[in-house]
Amino acid sequence: MADSAEPTAVLAQFQTADGEKTGPPLSLPSDVTAEQLSVLINKFLENEETHPYSFYVDNKEVVRSIQKDIIEGEQRSAEETLVIVYQPQAFFKVRAVTRCSSSMTGHTEAVLSVSFSPDGSKLASGSGDTTVRIWDLATETPQFTCKGHKNWVLSISWSPDGKTLASGSMDNTVRLWDPMTGKQIGAPLAGHRKWITSLAWEPLHINPKANRLASSSKDGTVRVWDTTLRRCVFTLAGHTAAVTCVKWGGDGRIYTSSQDKTIKIWNSDGSLHKTLTGHAHWVNTLAFSTDFVLRTGAYDHTGKEPASEEDAQKKALKRYNEAKGKGPERLVSGSDDFTMFLWDPLNSSKPIERMTGHQKVVNHVSFSPDGRLIASASFDNSVKLWDGKTGKFIASLRGHVAAVYQVCWSSDSRMLLSASKDSTLKIWDLRTKKLKLELPGHADEVFTVDWSPGGDRVASGGKDRVLKLWKH
Fold first, then answer.
1. Across the beta sheet with 434-439, what order do the strands follow?
2. In the prediction, which pLDDT does 337 show?
3. 320 phi and psi, to 5 degrees?
4. What is the dihedral of CA 126, 132, 137, 139, to 10 degrees?
5. From 131's CA, which of 12, 88, 348, 441 has a CA 20 to 30 Å away?
6. How confident is the prediction for the chain on average, in pLDDT?
7. Are the C-beta atoms of 144 and 135 separated by less than 8 Å?
8. How far is residue 55's CA from residue 39's CA, in Å, rounded to a whole number?
9. Contacts of 121 (CB under 8 A, 6+ apart)
10. Does residue 201 carry a pLDDT above 90?
11. CA-based diameter of the chain, in Å?
12. If you ran DSSP here, which 8-state letter would residue 3 be given?
């Protein structure tokens, strides 16, 4: 039919993601583009400066025009009213990293974790050689080697004010390091009977002193430490098997996942709030819709230093509330039963959605910084994308030829990075849902990857013992 391509008039209604109508229903030409919709919505909202937006009709993004993407692409009739959902996008744009700017040697065993500090100025790595290393990003050279652990360093975590680095090890202890000097702060935090699986700091908007840390262990418990006094404040015992992951929510509660197939929510005084059941096998990983702002605290993508503790707390609270939006904090869990669950943990003990599609173990899940998408990494060689509000499946990102260990988002939520057993990193473009760039260079499996909060560089590490920095 030749006449199908003729633009016609369509009735359209703008609406927010929360379902609030904006402006009156409009009659628009069907060949209206995303740019033109953007001009319209900025007028309706009376924005002083032009904000970037993306537009969706029935979850299908308008990339070219309503005519091409919706009427022809989705076979929608031009007679019915189209509800156009608009969503604000990040003001700043992160550029894809394209080259390896340095390969930093120093670790003598596999690099098991890498992490940028909340303001993006420092990088830390933990390794099977029992050390934690802090790297100087200006010169891309090793700055400090933190020695003390007697066994593999399994996890590292920066306090949200960036002043302390914690590491958890196979030697059953947690140690604290001063990133300015590389020296250990006090004695190791001892008490766990088996190795440390995960670490989580109390969010900065709740505790501006940033001196409470939770550690989960293979021994089935979680201990909460006062890092100033360096003692255990209380122990969360209730899981009947290893605790695999601990998260400290923006509501002040502590969330734990375990090999006993459950997720438990604990009040900040150590009492059990509730247990979430549903998984048929070990729960491996948890992620919050607000993880990115909880991790970066008072720092936005510019990395500006807050003036004081009060100022830092204010900024962190403002960023948390903006990220959380009107809805509740959402939690996603990934399991050895090949599925994921999306939860609204405070309002319901039932999951919002059971997310199926992976054919093997789900190893890692992560929310985009804007909380709209969830990415999952699996041993079935794929990365999958899901809607962060409903849990509905969006797309599979295929390209890796072996298990995918970790995923990591760019701070503007426009790109996703995955690290795999196949020795490559891949960058995916979220707009096209296609591979944007392949980053080969590691000689063996890549276990861990992190994208700096400002978006200017990526760090990766793995079995070849080399820490690689990638830049645009």
1. 404-409, 415-420, 425-429, 434-439
2. 94
3. -65, -45
4. -120
5. 441
6. 92
7. no
8. 12
9. 137, 162, 303
10. yes
11. 77
12. G
User: CA 303 to CA 299: how far, in whole Å?
Assistant: 5
Q: What is the mean pLDDT of residues 160-167?
A: 96
Q: Which one, of 327, 356, 347, 361, lies nearest residue 244 by Cα? A: 361
Q: How far is CA 15 from CA 46, 85, 90, in A?
A: 15, 5, 19
**Of residues 472, 436, 470, the one with CA closest to residue 116:** 470
Contacts of 59 (CB under 8 A, 6+ apart): 387, 392, 394
pLDDT tens string 298-333: 898 887 888 899 999 999 999 999 888 888 899 999
**Structure tokens, 379:** 């041993």
Q: Is 367 helix (H, G, I), strand (E, B) or coil?
A: strand
- Both tokens of residue 408? 């990591």
Q: How far apart are CA 22 and CA 15, in angstroms?
A: 5
DSSP 291: H
Please tell me the distance from the alpha carbon of residue 174 to that of residue 418, in angstroms, as a whole number.
28
Question: For residues 400 and 285, what is the distance between their CA atoms, to the nearest angstrom?
Answer: 21
H or E element: which one contains 198? strand 196-201
Residue 279 pLDDT greater than 70, yes or no: yes
Q: What is the pLDDT of residue 5?
A: 62
CA distance linking residue 53 with residue 66, whole number of Å: 15
Q: In the prediction, which pLDDT does 1 show?
A: 42
DSSP 8-state code for residue 71: I
H-type alpha helices, 275-411:
291-296, 309-324
Residue 427, CB half-sphere, CA atoms under 13 Å: how many?
Answer: 24
